[in-house]
Amino acid sequence: MPLSNGGPQDRPVAVFYEHPEWFRSLFAELDRRGVPYDRLLAHNHRFDPAEREAPYALVVNRMSPSAHVRGHANAIPYTLQYLAHLKDIGANVLNGLEAYRYEFSKANQIRLLDRLGLPHPRARAINHPAQAAEAAEGLRFPVIVKPNIGGSGAGIRKFDTPEELGRAAEEGAIELGIDHVALVQEYLPPRGNHIVRVEVLGGKFLYAIRLNLVAPDAFNLCPASYCKLHPGCLLDGVSGRGGALIEGYTAPRRVVETVERITQAAQIEVGGVEYLISARDGEAYFYDVNALSNFVADAPNVVGFDPFPMFVDFLLARAGLGMVESFTSAITARAREIDPSVPVY
Description:
Elements: E1 13-17, H1 24-33, E2 37-41, E3 58-62, H2 75-88, E4 93-94, H3 97-103, H4 106-115, E5 123-126, H5 132-135, E6 143-147, E7 157-159, H6 162-170, E8 182-186, E9 194-201, E10 204-213, E11 244-248, H7 253-265, E12 270-277, E13 284-290, H8 299-302, H9 307-318, H10 324-338
Parallel strand pairs: 1-2, 1-3, 3-4
Antiparallel strand pairs: 5-8, 6-7, 6-8, 9-10, 9-12, 10-11, 12-13
Helix pairs in contact: 1-9, 9-10
């Protein structure tokens, strides 16, 4: 949905979310500016399907696919129903139904990358552990089995040989996830033992970070310090203890343009895309598309600025409560400060 140049409205902004910690900085910035907003806790939310008008100037969808690891699996299919309702009544939604169809499905992400003609790890979708070994035929080992609905690396497991995968399938030791769908996917060893995440805001480049892996086979590489509250988290984004060390990174212009293309095709207005350079062939492979970004921890020291004021500028512009031009100028200046080759929008 395009930005709005409309005037102030009487309706508040709504933030639809589930994680208890990730959005404290967002709420603090909204409070600091005196922006009227409602907090909609996804797993305690309800709606009237007969309602024909949203009571909000903007619904900011911040629902996490990893809600199931916090006991809130019920909120995941519910969110898709709520977003479908909001779309049907023409509500103004940030990261709406189309975006979250990608967030809630790794299989959909692979389809998107393939449709765009972009390099990605080869993968097969399965719906039962017994299918895993056969699905891996023709793939290069190691492979990983990745739940279709994951988030924060939940349930991902690496298998070095077909025999190891076959034994795990026979023993029922393969986790498919809450929708009983998973990917059997080639594992690409990252060159330099690091991966890169590129963030966008308003569909445009915001910043990039490089995560230098410390723990072997680390898959939960959440860049926010809040992730340390998750029992399985491998990363403390502030101290770097555990799965990765984080640093600001200047992504190549071609990568920035590709990430913008991916997120725009997925209708993701704020989010991130992860890629790696394969140690096998030196090529860039895109492998994860995120419609939820809680931004990197300690951002001023890692990427040189605090993204939350800019995020709120964008929300106000999308809600018709702020100036589009100020947000556009700010994000262009930010992008070119990090990388002068980034085009002016």
